[in-house]
Design goal:
There is one protein chain. Helices cover 22% and strands 29% of the residues. Strands 5, 6, 7, 8, 9, 10, 11 and 12 form an 8-stranded antiparallel sheet that branches. A 3-stranded antiparallel sheet has the order 3-4-13, with no helix packed on it. It is of the alpha+beta class and 251 residues long.
Length: 251
């Protein structure tokens, strides 16, 4: 007995196995027309559907429960570069520098900037080197200790490659500037400042470093000038440091 073919059979191939995406691929392989011509002429409606499927891009069926609306396309990126948010920075002081009743002038390559912390009365960088800096401290009348322990502490932060005592190699001198007694010190070595601020990692040792220090004994207490950094940068700033010390005067 002759079995009548079902509407979805074609030479033993069940067309229900071919979803729209598969038919699209077959169309590009020149097989879609062959499937439509084999025993499908009496099924005009199905043929029209399949032909339409072959001539349009297949779209995957929506997942059950998923929305069928098409999401809006994101806006095209602007051709203008994004402007980064401004990072607030501390303002550079504009008033005349002073501490402990003393004032002074400054010149390049020393560049005045906002102090990193409240313990510093003033602070300077050195042009061309980010790691060199001049820190100026004033702790109040009769505060901060006398000259000798402070110079000893500064020299203890410089280690010699051969393990010798830095205090034995340091250069010391004293001078009077506008009736102000100033003690000077100069030394070289590997700078290791020791403990940093609480919660911050210890600073890496700085080899071939140089220190220029001055302690000015004013009427309101001592003012401490400490220039430390790579030897080349400190040597460049030496004339400006000496000029600063020579400009000291009562405020």
């Amino acid at each position: 007995m002759h079995r009548r073919r079902g509407p979805v059979e074609n030479n033993g191939i069940g067309l229900e196995k071919y979803n729209l995406a598969t038919l699209w691929k077959l169309h590009h392989a020149d097989l879609c027309d062959g499937l439509l011509q084999r025993g499908m002429r009496k099924k005009w409606l199905l043929s029209m559907i399949l032909i339409a499927a072959c001539n349009k891009s297949a779209e995957p069926a929506a997942e059950p429960g998923m929305p069928t609306t098409v999401a809006e396309s994101p806006a095209a990126p602007s051709s203008q570069p994004a402007t980064p948010a401004a990072t607030p920075t501390a303002a550079v002081p504009t008033e005349a520098p002073s501490a402990g009743g003393l004032t002074w002038t400054d010149e390049k390559p020393l560049v005045r900037r906002a102090p990193k912390n409240s313990m510093r009365a003033a602070e300077y960088g050195v042009e061309g080197d980010e790691s060199a800096e001049l820190s100026i401290f004033y702790f109040g009348p009769d505060q901060g200790g006398v000259v000798e322990p402070n110079i000893t502490r500064w020299l203890g932060q410089l280690k010699q490659p051969d393990g010798s005592d830095t205090t034995q190699k340091a250069k010391r001198s004293e001078k009077k500037v506008s009736d102000i007694k100033v003690s000077l010190v100069e030394a070289q070595g590997t700078f290791a400042a020791g403990m940093g601020m609480p919660g911050s990692p210890a600073a890496e040792p700085l080899p071939d470093a140089m220190l220029l220090g001055a302690i000015a004994e004013g009427q309101k207490g001592s003012v401490f000038f400490k220039l430390i950094g790579p030897r080349e940068a400190v040597e460049r700033a030496r004339p400006a440091f000496q000029a600063m010390v020579d400009s000291l005067r009562p405020q």
